[in-house]
Amino acid sequence: MAIFSGTKVGPIIEQLLKISAKKRAKVKEITLDMANSMKTIAKQCFPKAIQVTDRFHVQKLALEALQDIRIKHRWDAIDRENQQIKQARAKNGTFVPKEFSNGDTRKQLLARSRYLLYKSPNNWMQNQYERSKILFAQYPDIKVAFDLVQGLRNILNTATSIQTAYTKLAHWYKDVENTGFRAFNTIANTISLNYRSILNYFINRSTNASAESFNAKIKAFRAQFRGVKNVEFFLYRLTTIFA
Fold it and tell me: Which of 71, 86, 133, 188 stands 20 to 30 A from 60 (CA)?
């Protein structure tokens, strides 16, 4: 395992090129995010390796676009409620927000829907299912965006070949264009620009899951000590515990 300080392309390439070309040629596949710096490093240091865009980075972009739509509605709901409170006070009255059938106010509905939008419907609890029905009835655009996220997830889960995935992604791209959602159009364009490495996922279905899990363990381990002073001893402990 190699650990580098920082993420600058030059120093990382310099260090990796110290590994013999014969050994680097044995690397057949590299999973990475959509950062151009990582692609440059992979291309120069491991020219024979297939680059695979990690599926979870693709899904994350779609989820962020969905949450962006929810958050905009939440800010609108907060502004509306603040105005209603001011109007009530101007008349020496008290504003009582309307509650939906599950007991949520509009502001609460939008805040509490955050986590259910990350899940597939078959993983919802009963209260999340009830909240989703109200949310989607009140905000049809959130329902459309949620369906786009689920559609992308379904492609990544079920497509069995590059050809099948390519066709399904083309249909998904068209669905995105038809919605007119700016955030999703940005994602669709990002996928279009990275489609080759995204489609490479369907060769071996490789992901960064193990690397991300290891990274999370390192961060949690470091947080226990509120920082690291002796780097060498820290790396020794890491290799002893996790290697």
Answer: 133
Q: Where are the domains of the chain?
A: 9-54+205-242, 56-193
**Which burial class, exposed, middle or buried, applies to 235 when counting CB atoms under 10 A from its CB (0-12, 13-18, 19+)?**
middle
pLDDT digits (tens, 9 = 90+) for 166-218: 999 999 999 999 998 988 988 888 888 899 999 999 998 888 766 666 666 77
| Per-residue model confidence as pLDDT tens digits over 107-122 | 999 999 999 999 999 9
Which helix H or strand E contains 10, and what residues bound it?
helix 9-16
**Residue type present at position 126:** Q
User: Six-digit token pair at 58?
Assistant: 């693709």
The yes-or-no verdict on residue 1 having pLDDT over 60 is no
Contacts of 17 (CB under 8 A, 6+ apart): 44, 45
Separation of CA 21 from chain center: 34
Q: Is the separation of the CB atoms in 123 and 105 below 8 Å?
A: no
User: Residue 104, class by beta-carbon neighbours within 10 Å (0-12 exposed, 13-18 middle, 19+ buried)?
Assistant: buried
Q: Do residues 73 and 110 touch, judged by C-beta distance below 8 A? A: yes
- Which has the closest alpha carbon to 48: 27, 32, 34, 33? 27
- In whole angstroms, give the CA distance from residue 120 to residue 149: 10
CA distance linking residue 207 with residue 41, whole number of Å:
18
Instruction: Give just the sign of the alpha carbon dihedral 231, 234, 240, 243.
Output: negative
What's the pLDDT tens digit per position in 126-138? Answer: 999 999 999 999 9
